[in-house]
Amino acid sequence: MIKFVGAGAGDPELITIKGQKALQEADVVLYTGSLIPKEVLGWCREDCLIENSADMDYNDIFEFIKLYHHKKFVRLHTGDPSIYSTIAKQINFLDKNNIEYEIIAGVTAAFAGAASAGIEYTITGVSQTLIISRIEGRTPNPETLRQLLSNKNSSFAFYLSIRLIKKLKETALDMNYSIETPCWVVEKASWRDEAIYKGTLENIEEKVKDIKGIALIMFGEFLNQNPTIDSHLYAKEYKKERTKS
Fold first, then answer.
1. What value does the mean pLDDT of the chain take?
2. pLDDT tens-digit profile of 34-86?
3. Residues in domain Tetrapyrrole methylase (predicted)?
4. In the Cβ-directed half-sphere of 141, how many Cα atoms lie within 13 Å?
C-alpha cells in the first residue's frame, strides 16, 4: 500500500492527524526534497527507511516503489497532493501494476497563504470563484494568461510564477484592469521566515524583485475584502426561515 501524504505548505503543524499517523506507522518514506519540513520527518520511526527523491527521475521512483510497495510506504509530497504535485504519473504506474494506494490531503500554499494574510477568497458580491493556476513561461499552459484573466470577477492564486509577475502586470493592464488592482505575494507561506508583500499592479513588481524562492501570487479585487452585498447565511430573515423549516 502506497500512501500519498500532503505535508502541508511549510508549517509542520499543518499536516493532518491522518498524515502524521501514516508517517508514524511507515516502514518506508520517500519524500520530495528540501521543502519538506525536517520536523515532519521526525515523526518517522527510528528504523524507518527515509529517502529523498530530489535526485530521482520517474524511472528511479518507480523502481523504488516496486522494491518496497509491499511495506507500509509513504510518498510524502509538499502542500496538498492534488495541486502541482505530479502524482498523476505515479498513480498511473500504480494502477498499471495493481498496487493499492491512498491519498491523504494536505494544506496547500494557496490556503496557508490566505490564512497568514488574513483574507477570504470568496467575497459576497465581489468573487465567488477561485482560480488556481500558474503564469505560462517555458512550459505552456492549456489556457493563456489572457484567457485566465478574462474571468475578471474571480480571485486568482498563481503558483510557480514569481519570476513572471511583470507579465501578469503588463497583461492585466492591457486588458483594462485598474493599475490599483490589489496584488499580494506570500513568500514561503507558513514557514518561519514567511514574508507577505502587499501592493497593487502599480508597485508589486518592485516590492518582490529580490524573491528567489517559492512564492504565491494573489491577485484580484477580493483582496480589498469589502463585500458589496450581505450574505444570506447569517441574515436574520434566513435564520428565521431555516428555523421554521
1. 94
2. 899 999 999 999 999 999 999 999 999 999 999 999 999 999 999 999 999 99
3. 2-204
4. 16
pLDDT at 227: 80
For residues 218 and 183, the answer to whether their CB atoms sit within 8 Å is yes
Comparing CA positions, the residue from 222, 199, 216, 224 lying closest to residue 112 is 216
Asked if 210 and 162 touch (Cβ cutoff 8 Å), the reply is no
Looking at residue 105, the DSSP 8-state letter turns out to be -
The architecture of the domain spanning 2-104 is 3-Layer(aba) Sandwich (3.40)
Residues pairing with 127 in the sheet? 123
Residue extent(s) of CATH 3.30.950.10 domains in the chain: 109-224
User: 214 in helix, strand or coil?
Assistant: coil
Q: Please provide the CATH number assigned to the domain covering 109-224.
A: 3.30.950.10
Q: Position 26: which residue type?
A: A
Could you identify the residue written with the cell 490564512?
Answer: 115
β-pair type (28-31, 73-77): parallel
Convert the pLDDT of each residue in 101-110 to its tens digit.
Answer: 999 999 999 9
Domain with CATH 3.40.1010.10 in the chain: 2-104
